[in-house]
Amino acid sequence: MRWVCDMTDGPFKNAFEGDIEGVIRREIVTYRLKNDVMVKETATRDYYNSGDYHDAISTQPLVPR
């Protein structure tokens, strides 16, 4: 089951729905525990002059080396 959040007013919502003029890239970073391992999830959106964009997500386990 996936939890969906309906954002209300505030700085987090404004960061996503605000003006994108001059924006090249947006990122959101989430740290979560999965099977007792800390994982860094990064979602990115790269904007292009054409008005198009490209979304990507990466996941990185943060473990002692």
Features of this protein?
mainly beta, 1 helix
**Could you tell me the number of beta strands?**
3
**Averaged pLDDT:** 87
Percent range for β-strand residues: over 45%
- Indicate the percent of residues in helices: 10-25%
* Strand neighbour order, sheet with most strands: 1-2-3
Order of helices and strands: HEEE
Q: Judging from the principal axes of the Cα atoms, what is the shape?
A: extended
Give a quick account of the main beta sheet: strands, pairing sense, barrel closure: 3 strands, antiparallel
Nearest-angstrom radius of gyration? 15 Å
What is the overall number of helices? 1
SSE class: mainly beta
**Low-confidence runs (pLDDT<50, min 5 residues)?**
none
**Straight-line N-to-C gap:** 33 Å
SSE inventory with pairings:
Layout (H helix, E strand, L loop, with lengths): L10 H7 L7 E10 L2 E11 L5 E10 L3
Antiparallel strand pairs: 1-2, 2-3
Q: Would you kindly provide a written description of the structure presented here, covering whatever features stand out?
A:
There is one protein chain. The protein has a domain at 22-62. Helices cover 11% and strands 48% of the residues. It has one helix spanning 11-17; strands at residues 25-34, 37-47, 53-62. 0% of the residues are buried. The model has no long low-confidence stretch (mean pLDDT 87).
